[in-house]
Amino acid sequence: MQPPREFENPLCAQVDGELWFPEKGGSSVAAKKICSQCSHITECAEWGIKHEAFGIWGGLSVRDRDRIRKKRNITIEHLDWEDWLLNAKT
Ligand code: SF4
Fold first, then answer.
1. Atom 2 in ligand 1: which residue has the minimum CA distance?
2. Which atom, in ligand 1's list, is nearest to the CA of 20?
3. How many domains is the chain built from?
4. Whole-structure pTM value
5. Which of 11, 52, 65 to mutate to test the pocket of ligand 1 (most atoms within 8 A of CB)?
6. Domain around 39
7. Hey, whose CA ends up nearest to atom 5 of ligand 1?
8. 21-68 residue pLDDT tens
9. 3-state class (DSSP) for residue 39
């Protein structure tokens, strides 16, 4: 499975990336709207379901993905936010 950072011309690359990481209780509407127009939405959502604990991926929020994981009996390793940031920088 190709990670989203390798997608060709994803729409999120043209917009402020913070939209995809709303604060707790913040809106995910704008990011989801952009995702809905992205040609990578299906593969990105699948990636997010299998790998991502934070943010909007393929138009799915953390809560959306948690629901799907529960139905499919998928577990991922949930890193804490500081660990995630450290890993993202390396
Ligand atoms: S579906 Fe959304 S998060 Fe995924 S690559 Fe497209 S715009 Fe980015």
1. 35
2. 3
3. 1
4. 0.84
5. 11
6. 4-89
7. 10
8. 998 888 999 999 999 999 999 999 999 999 999 999 999 999 999 999
9. coil
